[in-house]
Amino acid sequence: MRAQGRLLTFAVPLAIITGACWGAWADDSGRGDDRDHMRKDEQLVLKKTIGVGTDSMGKPLTLTAFDISFVDPKIELYILADRTNASVDLFDSEEAEFIGRVGSLCPAPAPNTDFCFQGVVLNPDGSANNAKSGPDGDVIVDHKEIWAGDGDSKIKVIDIATKQFITTISTGGKLRVDEMAYDSRDHLLAAANNADTPPFVTVFDTVGKTVVAQLIFSNNPADVCTAPNPATYQCVHTGVDAQNGIEQPQWSPQTGLFYSSVPQVGSDPTVGGVSVIDPTTNMVTGTFLVKNCGPNGLALGPRHQALLGCGAAFPPQTTPPDPTLVQTTQSVIIDITSTDFALDGAVVASVPIGGNDEVWFDKGTRHYFLGADNNLANNKFAPVLGSIDATTNKLDPSPVSSRTAHSVAADQNSHFVFLPIAIPAATTPDPTNPCPTTGCIQVYRAHSEHGEEDAQR
């Protein structure tokens, strides 16, 4: 964020780390040698690592748990849902510097959870309960507000200029409000309650700060909407049998539609999909079905295409686990204007990298970036910051990352790619973690090999 555009004014020292390791190259949808298309200027270069601020005594704060991140290049702001510190962390996306945070930990028992975050909520055995922790999903609305989901099934709205909470809006669910997408044309926001049973999407009016509709991802007519004041909004049964939650939604200014990733559609764990939501009717108009993917992340790219950041490994592991079973991970790219909703009918390419959570499309470099923390190679975890050329739909050199690096966002103007990395759990080996005692955010510089006019298509 340049000096004249700053919204916040304090920063912390930056540690600079150079060098990067590169992952394996992929072939053309798994069918041929792909190395010739790669150019040196397509590589991601690690520029620095940054922390998440200091406490009142000046001691660096740690990062043990986080969720979704987002960049608004117009105001040069990168935000991160920081569960460890029960806050939304704010960074200058032009200078790659920490500039502040908004939030605090809700007291327990919480007399008022409207202006705080749940932080890391623990199960009785001491493990983290992701379904009740927060903040979770986040997005910037109209360059003025941060909408952040929390583990108490509420969205908390923050004014960026004042760094204060404005209001909270309940979805009526029992568990976290997760990933979300903003329709800037109609001033609507779609947010997924992925952990509730059944999962559901709530559509909000961002001007009036009210619930417009709730879409139940279930084929059981007995499942009911949960948002308060049911007479004031539209309750929709989608008929989509989402048996493993719902994940990252997106809104396309080209089609005017929302798209929501569904990791599993029906009883077959190898079948997932992307549901299409029309915001004018709040109805699901179809679901693109995909095989061997388990869509978590979703990013809209050029030519009406979308990258599905597949999260699962296939074939599914048996019970008890079979040590001889060879599993693979992939991500797929679909045509969102296709009228073919049959299994893999809309798929235009596949890329042999997966195990993703959040994925991102960067207009500045015309690349998809993937938080592939559970990527597999030779049946072993091989986490990478995935980089896919959206012009060719082929994998570019992808830096080795960490088993905790599941979130990613990029600034199309500064060409910085932000990859948060947490302190690993004692039970999860993470030998490639660059900041195992503190957590950090790795900042990569991406280079565009495409012209400006081409990159904006």
Report on this structure.
This protein is an all-beta fold and 457 residues long. It has a single domain (3-455), classed as YVTN repeat-like/Quinoprotein amine dehydrogenase (Methylamine Dehydrogenase, Chain H, 7 Propeller). The protein has one helix at 452-455, and strands at 45-50, 66-72, 77-82, 87-92, 97-102, 138-141, 145-149, 154-159, 164-170, 180-183, 188-193, 200-205, 210-216, 234-237, 249-251, 258-262, 271-278, 283-291, 295-300, 305-310, 331-335, 347-351, 359-362, 367-372, 376-377, 380-381, 384-389, 394-395, 409-410, 416-421, 440-445. The strands form eight sheets. It has a five-stranded mixed beta sheet with strand order 10-11-12-13-14, with no helix packed on it. It has a four-stranded antiparallel beta sheet with strand order 1-31-30-29, with no helix packed on it. It is globular. 53% of the residues are buried.
